Amino acid sequence: MTKNTEKRSWLSRLLRDRRGNFGMMTALVFPVMLAAGGVAIDLTKMVMIKAELQDATDAAALAAASSLANDGKTVAQAKELAMRFLKSQMTTGGSANAEGEHEDKDKNDYSTSTVIDIKETVLSGTAKSFQVDVATSYTLDFNPFTRLLGQTSTQMHARSTAESGTAEKKQSVSMFLVLDQSGSMSFITNEKDPTPNKKCQNHTSSNWYTANLKETSPCYISKIAALKTAVASLVTQLNTADPDKKYVRTGAVSYNDKMLTTVDLAWGTAGALAYVNAIAAVPQGGTDSSGAFAQGLKKVKDTAEDTIHKNKSGQTPTRFIVFMTDGENTHYNGSPNDTKSDEETKKSCQAAREAKIEVYAVAFMAPKRGQDLLRACATTGSNYFEATNMAGLVSAFKEIGSRTAAAVARLTK
After folding, report:
1. What is the third-level CATH fold of 173-407?
2. Domain ranges across the chain
3. What integer is the mean pLDDT of 245-256?
4. What is the spatial distance between Cα 147 and Cα 88, in angstroms, rounded to a whole number?
5. d(CA 320, CA 248)
6. Exposure of 153 by Cβ count < 10 A (0-12 exposed, 13-18 middle, 19+ buried)?
7. Per-residue pLDDT tens over the stretch 382-400
């Protein structure tokens, strides 16, 4: 065999040998697969951080706008507050604060990447309106796999605008309280009465039917007493915002296994608060929220409210219902029925939603079915509160009062 023949034979065998194809294909494709995986991870991070960034600018803008209208802050103080809110939101957990997220910590110095602009407009008299714009950016470093594609980082942006106004720009409000005063509202919370050596009837689900229940110490605060404290917290917010009783009208109705008496809407909060404080210290009866909620809806929906507000403040009121229960419906129109009241209450809640009436719902140490009903009635998820103790209940009512109090800061973009 000649040398040329040997060379052709060797080359032919090499061309026919495919044993190394998989290795070569892997060597070519593997970096692409790694880069694709890296992109998928970084895209997920980008979505999460973008949401966190937007939440942070929303919170900062709202905080600044509210402080200008409610707390008399100067523009400089409001800007400082907005920056603190934004930094707090972005540095207390979440995707944007993940360990090792970016190599250069100076890349995300919010003091330099954030622009806060506040526009103050003088209206009639001493009234002012404010517009707060907060814009910021965040640099996300890509992971090593994504960097195989040649790009090391990307920058994300978020912007929020909030508006508010001082006294003469306050929002008119018609609010109706729909409150549970069934027998279980006599039961104790986990909060002790601070009065030294005080004894009382500590009602619970296990001793509720005990005749002449013995007074014992320590004395625990009952659910109904906690509710009275919570309502007082809510009306304090409204009274502070509307000391002249020019913008806020409130009313109330309560229920056990049927709708009880009603106090109609009136200027200020005195009538509603007096009504709540007059509820018996040891309520009785089952639970049926349907009639009371329908009554609250009827009262706050009444078109006469428009005329009443316009005659005094020149505004059309924003309407609210505050709906609270500690249990689940057991009756309907005074008769045992564990389904009908839920059905009818939900119909009224839907009617409120269609009428643009905002419903706040507070489940106070309530079982799941009661929680589910209130969750369904709340206008949005943030309008639903689940209080497991007295402190939680007071906090929920205070938050509702704060949100609905006069100088409302609202997102416009």
Report:
1. Rossmann fold (3.40.50)
2. 33-167, 173-407
3. 95
4. 30
5. 11
6. middle
7. 999 999 999 999 999 999 9
